[in-house]
Amino acid sequence: MTKIAPSLLACDFSILKEEVNKVKESGADILHFDVMDGQFVPNISIGLPILESLRKNTDMIIDTHLMINDPEQMIDLFCEAGSDMVSVHIEATPHIHRAIQQIKAHNKLAGVVINPGTPVELLSSILADVDFVLVMTVNPGFGGQSFIETTLNKISWLNSYRQEHNLNFEIEVDGGVNEETGALCREQGADILVAGSYYFKHDDYKEPVLKLKGE
């Protein structure tokens, strides 16, 4: 069953607690929490205080996506603040194995993220060590962008690789996900769909969850 992870980057932060409650009631599986440093990506977003508050007010799985340079400097803090899943970009550190091991030391699910312009084959040396791979289907930094269709090849490659090597990492997709692009991602083997603008534009939050799951 496909898991749905609404991205809080697109929610109304003035009523964050209410938004999170609606996400849970809608049947979504995961809360996606985007962290941007204004250096690795050209934007700055939410950080530790929001995560700590979020953790106190929900029992949902929190998936923290670190779009930051030198993620090793912050991994411990975001794990301790309440993340259940933490992912780092392969482009953001020369020591991706160390970063993954650092996340796992906190007994959290560890993920590696890949940008649209990065060859997916570069992940082959880390795939046996991660719990999930996050495929960016837009260039990270801003919500509301259009889906880059060539990234479907990355999802397909990852799905074939895990079958060939008998691995069990999940494939997560983030960027431009809606009813149509979500279906394309599912067809290629995606397990988790992150949706921001598409999800939060609906008044009835159950509707996008059902559509993204293909029900």
From TrEMBL:
Annotated residues for binding of a divalent metal cation: 32, 34, 65, 174
Pfam families, A to Z: Ribul_P_3_epim
Manner of cofactor binding, per the entry note: Binds 1 divalent metal cation per subunit.
Catalytic residues (UniProt): 34, 174
Needed cofactors: Fe(2+); a divalent metal cation; Co(2+); Mn(2+)
SUPFAM superfamilies, per database record: Ribulose-phoshate binding barrel (SSF51366)
GO molecular function: D-ribulose-phosphate 3-epimerase activity; metal ion binding
Alphabetically ordered keywords of this record: Carbohydrate metabolism, Cobalt, Isomerase, Manganese, Metal-binding, Zinc
Protein's pathway: Carbohydrate degradation
Alphabetical GO biological process terms: pentose catabolic process; pentose-phosphate shunt
Substrates-to-products reaction catalysed: D-ribulose 5-phosphate = D-xylulose 5-phosphate
Matches recorded under PANTHER family: RIBULOSE-5-PHOSPHATE-3-EPIMERASE
HAMAP family (alphabetical): RPE (MF_02227)
Protein name: Ribulose-phosphate 3-epimerase
Organism: Mammaliicoccus stepanovicii
